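Researcher: I'd like a candidate sequence for this fold, 224 residues long. If you have to choose between options at a position, lean toward the conservative one.
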């Protein structure tokens, strides 16, 4: 379970302070799929960055499992990012000179998984997201956008995270492919009991998730 309480983030900038996330509280249970909707600039990416411990909040807490991740430091923080969280981005963020297989193996390498285990697990994950062996050996530029996003989902799953954070994962895809990617995330949430929090513009997709939260100028309201 993830419990966010009174979370806020204010950026200090020359033009004045920007309150990007204001007093946000919500809960998502293990294995649930939550979507976050809201206009550009409403604080969605800032919130995901806080949940992934890429940035630290100005106030509030984020309890994942039993730990308040806003209080982690050094090794514990790196460990959290590496093992507990999987990220999926709009532009896939795959490493271009590595094959799909190597991209999926990389986070396992960071986590210290032996090479003999990395290889079969990466193949298995790619198969789970719908890529065959030949496609697994291609570099990202030789895969379609939808296939690249499948690879990035396989990579996000590599270390069995308890939470997947996806920032507009279908933003670069046509609506049909986008729907397939969301269905894939949905089935993974079910089969792996992974919690998923995804930002989306697509209200139809958001309507199919377990919860929909809306951000407006950093303030969250629950729609469902
Ligand atoms: P969204 O993802 O919903 O489009 P963001 O979280 O990216 O919104 O941004 C929310 C607000 O915070 C915006 O006003 C944006 O300009 C501001 N912001 C985001 N990151 C920074 C930063 N590093 N420094 C200053 N302001 C920022
Ligand atoms: Mg954003």
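Model: Candidate sequence:
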């Amino acid at each position: 379970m993830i419990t966010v309480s009174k979370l806020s983030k204010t950026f200090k900038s020359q033009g004045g302070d920007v309150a990007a996330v204001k007093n946000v509280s919500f809960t998502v249970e293990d294995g649930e799929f939550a979507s976050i909707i809201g206009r550009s600039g409403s604080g969605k990416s800032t919130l995901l960055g806080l949940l992934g411990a890429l940035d630290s909040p100005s106030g509030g807490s984020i309890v994942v499992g039993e730990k308040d991740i806003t209080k982690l430091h050094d090794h514990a923080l790196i460990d959290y990012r590496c093992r507990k969280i999987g990220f999926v981005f709009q532009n896939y963020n795959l490493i271009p000179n590595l094959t799909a297989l190597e991209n999926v193996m990389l986070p396992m390498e960071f986590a210290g998984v032996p090479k003999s285990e990395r290889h079969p697990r990466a193949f298995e994950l790619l198969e789970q997201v719908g890529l065959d062996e030949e496609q697994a050996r291609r570099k990202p530029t030789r895969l379609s956008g939808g296939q690249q996003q499948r690879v990035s989902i396989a990579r996000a799953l590599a270390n069995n995270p308890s939470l997947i954070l996806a920032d507009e994962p279908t933003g670069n895809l046509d609506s049909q492919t986008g729907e397939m990617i969301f269905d894939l995330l949905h089935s993974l949430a079910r089969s792996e009991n992974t919690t998923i929090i995804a930002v989306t513009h697509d209200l139809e997709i958001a309507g199919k998730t377990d919860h929909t939260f809306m951000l407006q100028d950093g303030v969250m309201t629950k729609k469902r």
